[in-house]
Structures are given as C-alpha cells and as structure tokens.
Specification:
Blueprint lengths: L4 H8 L5 H15 L6 E5 L5 H8 L3 E6 L2 H10 L7 E5 L5 H5 L6 E7 L9 H10 E12 L9 E9 L2 E9 L7 E5 L10 E5 L2 H9 L4 E6 L23 E7 L1
Parallel strand pairs: 1-2, 1-4, 2-3, 4-5
Antiparallel strand pairs: 5-11, 6-7, 8-9, 10-11
Length: about 250
C-alpha cells in the first residue's frame, strides 16, 4: 500500500474517489446518522477523505490505516478541523493494537470500502464490541460480495428482439462460497503494483462480526441511477446490479 499510496491520494483528492462520493457516501451517511460531538473510529482511513467529512460534520475522529504513506497524505490534506482528527498507523489484524484504542469509548466505527483489503477480519470482529459504547454502531461498505468480486466477469450482449436491437448487461460468477485472495487493479488504473483483494461470501463476512456479538440492523445495496453510464462495461451502466453493499451493525 505504501507503493500505491501516492497515486491513490492523487486520484482520491480531498473528497475521495468518485465511486465513493456518488455511490458509497450517501448510504453511509444515512446509516451512520452522525451527531455532532460523537467519537468515531475510522478504520482503514486511507488519505482521510471520510475522516475529514465526519470532522466537518462535528464529530471527533480517530482515523487509522496500515499504510504510513497514506497517513502522511491524510495529515497533509487535513487543513481544517485538524484538532478533531487523530491519525494513527495501525495494523487491524493485531489484537493488541486494536485493544490499545480503548474500552467502550467510541460512539460509532466506520470502514469505507476496505474490509476486502484486510487479510484477516476476525481480530476486528472480536474487538469491535469492546471498543463501542452500548448501542454503538458499525457501518461498513464493501464491493458487493455476490456480484463485484475480483473473479467476476461482466457481460454485454446484443439481441434482435421484435425488430429492434436490445443490449443487456450481466455479471458471470463461477466462484462464491470459498474465500479467495487475488491480486487486482480494481482501484485507480495504472497503479504501480497490484494489491491483494480478499473476497468473502456473505456468511464469512458477517460471521466475523456476529461471532463478536454485533447484530445487523440495516443494509443497502446501491447501484448507479439510470442514465449515468456511457454504454460500456463500467459499473455506471449496471443499474440493476448493485456494485456495493453497505451495512450497519450494532452492539
């Protein structure tokens, strides 16, 4: 991630990648229902786009990421409300590091499009109930485990139907149940090196947090609205297949 950090920061800018802004952020904000003064844990914060947005809304944020270089970019980009954001370098697979964040001190936790970048989410699933206050919520977003994985194949078909040509798009999935780790280039194009994506079925993804004691109480599957696409195989053209899944879990 340190090798790719400069390009990701350049493409994300101050507000995050376009996909995050248009598809992920609206649903995340609805489910998070952030209140001013709350203390939020931003997990795998990247260059701090979500942390800055939450600080702008009046929250206090502890934002952590495994990449030292991304944390450097996050600090440089945080020119407003810097007193509300505490950036830290942290390995989210490290039990001791997670416990060091404190006990029952966070009103909410957020992980924006990053759980599939983490090799083992079991430590996070076990730790979160002890980090969140009673009634605290955890909102996360991921590439949709059923449709938008590194092994998925997008299809584009043209059919002559009653004298007119009709174009349909679909997704072909040949593997789902077995968790897989594949190198991919799903983020910004032309990044220096591919990085691993960890695809998990829904049962494994949610199971890591169910075992820790969290319960699911909201779920959204956003897709791009009709008319947003350009006719190709971009996710903007798949208006009936959700590219992402956003969930809210509670202690």
């Amino acid at each position: 991630w340190d090798e790719n950090a400069d390009l990701w920061d350049q493409r994300a800018g101050d507000r995050g990648l376009e996909f995050q802004r248009t598809v992920i952020d609206p649903a995340t904000e609805r489910l998070l229902a952030l209140r001013p003064g709350e203390l939020v844990l931003d997990l795998a914060c990247g260059n701090g786009a979500s942390a800055r947005k939450m600080a702008e809304a009046g929250a206090r944020v502890v934002a952590v990421d495994f990449s030292e270089r991304l944390i450097e970019h996050a600090r440089l980009r945080t020119t407003k409300h810097a007193d509300r954001i505490d950036y830290r370098v942290m390995n989210l697979t490290d039990d001791d590091a997670l416990r060091s964040l404190g006990a029952r001190c966070f009103d909410a936790a957020v992980c924006t499009m990053a759980l599939f970048d983490i090799s083992d989410i079991a430590p996070l699933g076990a730790a979160l109930p002890g980090l969140l206050r009673a009634g605290g919520r955890f909102v996360f977003s991921v590439m949709h485990p059923c449709f938008n994985t590194t092994g998925a194949v997008k299809t584009l078909e043209e059919e002559n139907l009653d004298g007119r040509f009709v174009v349909t798009r679909g997704v072909k999935i040949v593997e789902y149940l077995r968790p897989t780790a594949r190198k991919g280039l799903v983020g910004p194009p032309n990044q220096p090196v591919p990085h691993y994506y960890f695809d998990r079925p829904l049962s494994v993804l949610f199971g890591a947090f169910f075992r820790g004691g969290l319960v699911l109480d909201a779920l959204e599957e956003p897709a791009f609205p009709p008319g947003a696409g350009d006719g190709g195989l971009s996710w903007r053209n798949f208006t009936e297949i959700p590219a992402a899944l956003i969930a809210r879990m509670r202690v």
